[in-house]
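2024-03-11 09:14:02 DEBUG pipeline.ingest accepted 1 chain
2024-03-11 09:14:02 DEBUG pipeline.ingest length=201
2024-03-11 09:14:03 DEBUG pipeline.predict start
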Amino acid sequence: MKKNIGLVGLFGAIFLAIAVVSIAADNGAIRTKLIPYEETPLTINSTARGEFKATIRNDGTAIDYELTFQNLSSTVTQSHIHFGRPGLTGGIVLFLCYNPAVVTAPAGVPVPQNCPLTSPATIKGTLTDVDVIAVPGQGIDGGAAGFAEMVKAIRAGAAYANVHSTLHPSGEIRGRLGFDRGDHRTNARNDERDEHDEHAH
């Protein structure tokens, strides 16, 4: 009897450990497609496509990301993470890259990496509290407080990534940020739009 209880306890501990690891992995995973139909304030018709993948570290102090994009209608100018819900335009909080030939580097934060001018393009990086640009009008602070606010916004689906171009300075492709485990419906809608747009062109 004691042997059986011990086995049950062992299997229970293993299951709990696996569950905890799975939850930790799920909680940090972000993936979204960037498409023209998500853009605001004007919806864009374009063949441009992109994808944003990232992981929020377990302590919430950094975001490791990878951004890919291709087929922009014109030269890329910049890319960011904004604070804003779907269908709304929000302030720039975190730079992903910029084109120094056409855009001035943001003040008060480290100079972002250059956006690649080839297509398709891929960039990788890490964002921390030093990269946060405060948006007082929307209640986003600078520094560590602002970074925590953006992590919370991402968890709530109130942030998005986009890529801007010279012909579409307000943004050409955009995607809502959210966790894979809780954002399947959003990504599924993006996939449907993506497929429809591919057929349209």
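2024-03-11 09:14:41 DEBUG pipeline.report The domain at 29-200 is CATH 2.60.40 (Immunoglobulin-like).
2024-03-11 09:14:41 DEBUG pipeline.predict end
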